[in-house]
Design a protein that fits this description.
Layout: H1 3-11, H2 16-23, H3 38-53, H4 61-82, H5 102-120, H6 129-146, H7 151-170
């Protein structure tokens, strides 16, 4: 395991709400202010999407925690491009958008990660992916409706989308496509040998 892989692995264990609390810089004078707290709205929205697809609560902690971590790392990088305070995680450090809308950037970053990640969640949860993605798309439309049309909105969407693409690329080969349930895993019958919990592989 490389140092880079280890650093990324740690991110999976950090809940979305904690990342949100750590990652939200106060908008600088040039940035368009957020309406309320866009990061907390998207934290709640990510939880709704996880419930809708069926990976929460506790039914698929691997993909649920990965989804939260990736989403809010992208949000962090988008906000950091607007008001540079921290080291970026995946977005190239030279990206800067000081006049961008915070709401638009958060929405685009979150939507840009949640949609693809929800579509990739394996069986038996994949049947609910279209409905979960629709939850995200509806929220994205509602969030952008809050933002006045213009250059600030366009810049926010652009930097959020770039942050989402960067984190998706960084986590592309992280092993999360490993099946969650292995029904062929060998079971023993002697004392001390592994057996599935009844009805819970």
């Amino acid at each position: 395991m490389t140092a880079s892989t280890s650093r990324r692995g740690v991110a999976l264990a950090v809940p979305g709400a904690l990342l949100a609390a750590l990652a939200v810089p106060v908008a600088s004078a040039g940035a368009q202010p957020a309406h309320g707290n866009a990061v907390l709205r998207w934290d709640a929205l990510a939880g709704q999407a996880a419930l809708r697809i069926g990976i929460a609560p506790a039914d698929n902690p691997l993909h649920e925690s990965r989804m939260y971590a990736m989403t809010f790392l992208a949000v962090h990088d988008a906000l950091n491009a607007i008001d540079r305070r921290y080291r970026s995680y995946a977005l190239r450090s030279g990206v800067s958008a000081p006049g961008a809308s915070v709401d638009a950037a958060v929405a685009a970053a979150a939507r840009g990660v949640l949609g693809p990640v929800l579509r990739e969640i394996p069986a038996p949860f994949d049947a609910n992916a279209p409905a979960a993605v629709q939850v995200v798309e509806d929220a994205y439309a509602a969030e952008l409706a809050r933002v006045p049309d213009g250059a600030a909105e366009d810049e926010g969407v652009a930097v959020g989308a770039r942050a989402a693409r960067a984190i998706l690329a960084a986590r592309e080969d992280d092993g999360s496509d490993t099946p969650l349930f292995d029904f062929d895993y060998p079971q023993g019958t002697a004392p001390g040998q592994w057996r599935f919990t009844p009805d819970r592989p």
